[in-house]
Amino acid sequence: MTQATPPRVEPDAGPDLAFASQWRLMWLRFRRHRLAMVAGVVLLVLYFGAVFCEIIAPLGAGQRHRSYVLCPPQEVRLVDAAGDFHFRPFLYGVKQRGNPSDWLREYVVDTSVVYPIHFFTRGPEYEMWGLFATNWHLFGADEGAPLFLFGTDELGRDLFTRILYGSRISLTIGLVGVALTFFIGILLGGVAGYFGGWIDIIVQRGIEIIMAIPQLPLWMALSAALPAHWPPLHVYFGITIILSFMGWTGLARVVRGKFLTMRDEDFVVAARLAGTHELKIIFTHLLPSFLSHVITSATLAVPGMILGETALSFLGIGLQDPVVSWGVLLQKAQNFQAVVMAPWLLLPGLFVVFAVLAFNIVGDGMRDAADPYAN
Amino acid sequence: MRDPVTNERHGAEPLLEVLDLRVRIERDTGLVHPLNGVSFRIQEGQSVGIVGESGCGKTMASNALLRILPRRAEITHGSMQFRTQAGDRIDLAQLDPMSRRMRQIRGGEISMIFQEPMTAFSPVHTVHDQIAEMIRLHDPGADKEEQHRRVVELLDQVGIPDPEQRAFDYSFQLSGGMRQRAMIAMALASGPRLLIADEPTTALDVTVQARVLKLIERMQRELNLALMLITHDLGVVAHMVSYVYVMYLGRVVEEGPVEAIFDNPKHPYTAALLRSIPNLASKSRRLEPIEGNVPSADRLPTGCPFHTRCTEKVGDICQQRMPARVELSVGHAVSCFRYTEESLDDG
Amino acid sequence: MLNYILRRVLLMIPTLAVISVLVFTIIQLPPGDIITSRLLLLQQQGVDVSQEAIEAMRARYNLDDPLYLQYLRWIGGFLQGDLGYSVQFGQSVNHLIWERLGYTLLLTTTATLFAWLVAFPVGVFSALRQYSLLDYVATVLAFLGLATPSFLLALVLMYLGYAWFGIPIGGLFSPEFAAAPWNGSKLIDLLKHLWIPAVVLGTAGMAGLMRVMRANLLDELGKPYVQTALAKGLHPTRLVIKYPMRIAINPFISTVGWLLPHLISGAAITSIVLSLPTTGPLLLESLRNQDMYLAGSFLLMLSTLTVVGTLLSDILLAVVDPRIRYE
After folding, report:
1. In this structure, which topology does domain C100-326 adopt according to CATH?
2. N or C: which terminus of chain C carries fewer CB neighbours within 10 A?
């Protein structure tokens, strides 16, 4: 019988989109995902804060204010106690009530003392990115002002400043960790998926074994193994490596699965039959075809890293006090009394939630955008 | 009484008469119009082909018939008169898609064979389970033994060897051809009067295609079924049906007895479709694909839908107005300005 | 089927063997050992320990044997049910571990049940009524649940419990029941305390499962077999239950495999915050003090539980999914 096949053509997507690259299409689809765009902006703001924390923070990260120990967050005001409006924001002073030797101090707003807020002003000196010393700050108040937007800790250090400094560690540890994860995951997953056979079996078993050990106890065991005398930078990388040690398995599985299915796709077979070199096939045909997928997986892996660092530091086996990270800050909120006494010590946790939430939503949006079959 | 093959009135009412059916889908990006006034009819025991390229609304038409349109799609206009077993005429377009009545007709009186036998069966239920369910739904009186007897009988009828055993296989354990046979068995299990076959052989190997088509043809003859064959494959149509509707962008552009369509195509689109069929008999002729793509259903062209690709336009009128349906000979009608009064005035 | 189970069980043995070596290596990683950390402690307290005493202690715990011998001794004992001796607590590990392991299992099981009971219906509803108000609310809550570290949730609940109800939350028992022998009222007391850590622990898992269920079901709802079943005249509600839900639940089952290790991890840190008598706090303590038999046996025990849990969920999956069974 006759085999009649009229040309099967896909409906035209319109002249402008027909030749758009995969990345442009992804971006267009991502932009339609409003929540993901918002989350993306949140991430940008958080990372901006992490990069420029020295300038944005009004005070120094280690600066102690002995007269303001466990001081609650102070409000920046535009309207004074008399109800008058001021263009320049200001703070009221703070008075201590009760016995100052008491651990339980109470602070009350003292409307008789007014501290105006100055913008682009001089404050505590710092070294910008370790390059040059300066003392310019985005905003500040006179010496001795209780400029504690998020309150202070038990040593009288400003929590707002410390959260900003902490974001530099907490937010980069996720990125560095994922970069490492990415590398190991793609390498091992790719090798396993592409070559198959006994290599695949070994990698597969390895993944299974690592996945079988409960993550946090393993992290705990590994961090406990970090020498106590290591300098902070070493500990930082040590923790990152430990977090990646577990993290790569998920990504490797994704990559392996993709390689396995794509290895025998028509376009790969065609390239092979045409005599293309295996490595060239991997880099020009296989990787690009699911790179978006891998990047999405990586984005979704960042939160796990952030949460991991937070958990380890919170337990006191990750980063330690002179270093500032969100997990280290949360250590202060470890016991019940502290939380009841100074609930603002939980604020770093809010930032963890924000960052993780934003990464998850952006990752979700990317996944939707990367799916070429999505509507 | 007129010749039954011409699909004209011949005493009895048609089994199914669809008039000016329009369907609209709401998408985030806007409204899409997959069906823009489709009309066709099928007589009892007759086999009719619905032909067109992908994206012309063929599948949407059959889904509209069964009222299983996607969630955000709705029938905005038109009627679908169906004569039930009991003899009453029902407008399917007016029924609540989830009503008992509609569910009895769906599957019970009109059943369907799908394109992908691989995925059209649930992978975690046995073939037996899924066919028996069809029997149970439309013949609640049948007990377990009766159901089993009929499942095996049906599988035997459609040519599955060792049906007692294979019945308890899962769909992924069967070959493509066997799966499609099982699908046909399932579609016939309820004793329908109209069988819709939506690209029934597209997903199958060439060698298997012919056998499955023969099976459909045989079942249609033996059971005196009306058959609505939806396909892009004109070769299949030529052998299977007596009457053809050619669809383009949600409209019927030409209809007629199969010989008239093949020997004397009137619409430029039909003619172009025929020219794109490989033909072993005439080696000299070159294949001519149709220029351009089917426009997207969310950006319908004005005027005659085919004007964007038509090589035989009569003038500006083609992109300004819709051509009316003109009956050229008994049962052979076309919607094209080449055959209307207006174009004669125009030209 | 039997073949499949047998193969999986056999495969488990080398996996566990490698894990045991890995665990042993990890607990050997920190420089020094339990004696050095004890000595440090004693020296800080001003106690002078003679060299002979140190030697004697090292000899007693075979700390100077080659590592492989130490490993073999440990794993040999482990296989016979002797988990070693905790220097720090001066007790056998068996004695320390079982009760805590029991509470850990109780807690994780309760948390799993909680996660399932909420995630399943909400996930199904979210998928069936995609983009409805409830879907949005569930989505937002799921994202929040995934983003909140369990210890933070525990801290917030603790704070709210205190601020609103004036009750301190924590522990598995009220003080008057802690040492009491088991009876009805102690059980009730346990249940009263159990729900908070169960909710804290279950939340993240629940959020994840909810998303999985929703995604799976949405995926399945778009499959051609749904169209086929619809075209048969099946009622949509019965259809959803019989086909897509039945298939969407498969990955749900396999999540039991990863839920368990996740929960055990979560339990470790939540328990420290809520001061629960589970494995977490003890493990942390033993790791800090390099109490290697305690830490090692704990880790290996938890890993074994995880491996067995994964195996059970895989077997369950094979039971419900013929595609895996006939592979």
Report:
1. MetI-like fold (1.10.3720)
2. C
